[in-house]
């Protein structure tokens, strides 16, 4: 009897098992399961926001960002990368980091700004979609230099979602202007600004392809700093997230500077090679 479901096609040639049924390694499915879990987390965040459980809602969006960060690494570890997984990941990103943050923010504070708050949420989600579409097209660009893999073009979607929640972090930390309409208007303008950063051409550091190496003497201090960060996160969750967002904003300036230096070095090297011919 033929299955009512279409065969799972990860975008790679599968090993045929007989004339009818094909089998694929289970490792091709695991990354997609993680992606599905991230979608469930993002959607649950929206539901919790509508129910007024905003702290848990923000936590779900951040959890979706965590799952998005590990699904690709799990795929590479299990050698289960596929075109199917890449496309599915992009579809999950628009839900988790475009729609979910916009709706959570709207339900929490942007609704106080009326139509302006809703327009800000729409613009943010649209900017996220444009950023993801551009990212997918750049993957197929054969002329892109390899060193560009150390940088994203624009703020990546998960980081953008984390930055979009910055007004919520401040509010949960006890920092509030006390006037809902003004706070909502400022948050709306800020949300549109984050959308512009996501769809911009600003180079931001990427963990992929950076090839970062540290001196052996710095290994233990780095571990201790990481432990300190986790301890602060557990003890002062919203305050630590607020400081983290500020540090990320500062890092954008350094990444732009580093990208410019490497681009100039590449141009100078190409000019020297052309002159030596």
UniProtKB/TrEMBL annotation:
Keyword Acyltransferase: no
The protein's name in its UniProt record: Phosphatidylcholine/phosphatidylserine synthase
Compartment list: Membrane
Molecular function in Gene Ontology: phosphotransferase activity, for other substituted phosphate groups
Cited InterPro entries: CDP-alcohol_PTase-I (IPR050324), CDP-OH_P_trans (IPR000462), CDP-OH_P_trans_C (IPR012616), CDP-OH_PTrfase_TM_dom (IPR043130), CDP_ALCOHOL_P_TRANSF_CS (IPR048254)
Originating species: Aurantimonas marianensis
Keyword terms of this UniProt record: Lipid biosynthesis, Lipid metabolism, Membrane, Phospholipid biosynthesis, Phospholipid metabolism, Transferase, Transmembrane, Transmembrane helix
Membrane topology: Multi-pass membrane protein
Entry-linked Gene3D superfamilies: 1.20.120.1760
Record-stated family: Belongs to the CDP-alcohol phosphatidyltransferase class-I family.
Matching Pfam families: CDP-OH_P_tran_2 (PF08009), CDP-OH_P_transf (PF01066)
Domain CDP-alcohol phosphatidyltransferase C-terminal: 218-252
């Amino acid at each position: 009897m033929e299955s009512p479901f279409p065969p799972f096609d990860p975008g790679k040639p599968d090993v045929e098992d007989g004339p009818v049924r094909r089998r694929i390694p289970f490792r091709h499915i695991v990354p997609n399961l993680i992606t599905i879990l991230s979608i469930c987390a993002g959607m649950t965040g929206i539901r919790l926001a509508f129910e007024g459980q905003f702290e848990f809602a923000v936590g779900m969006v951040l959890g979706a960002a965590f799952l998005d960060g590990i699904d690709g690494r799990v795929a590479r570890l299990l050698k289960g990368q596929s075109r199917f997984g890449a496309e599915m990941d992009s579809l999950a990103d628009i839900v988790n980091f475009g729609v979910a943050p916009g709706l959570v923010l709207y339900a929490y504070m942007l609704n106080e700004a009326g139509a302006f708050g809703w327009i800000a949420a729409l613009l943010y989600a649209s900017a996220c979609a444009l950023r993801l579409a551009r990212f997918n097209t750049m993957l197929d660009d054969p002329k892109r230099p390899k060193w560009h893999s150390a940088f994203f073009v624009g703020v990546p979607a998960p980081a953008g979602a984390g930055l979009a929640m910055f007004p919520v972090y401040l509010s949960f930390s006890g920092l509030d202007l006390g006037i809902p309409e003004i706070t909502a208007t400022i948050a709306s303008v800020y949300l549109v600004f984050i959308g512009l950063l996501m769809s911009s051409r600003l180079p931001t550091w990427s963990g992929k392809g950076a090839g970062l190496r540290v001196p052996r003497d710095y290994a233990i201090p780095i571990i201790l700093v990481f432990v300190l960060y986790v301890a602060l996160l557990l003890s002062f969750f919203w305050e630590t997230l607020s400081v983290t967002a500020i540090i990320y904003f500062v890092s954008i300036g350094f990444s732009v500077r580093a990208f410019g230096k490497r681009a100039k070095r590449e141009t100078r090297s190409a000019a020297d090679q052309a002159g030596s011919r």
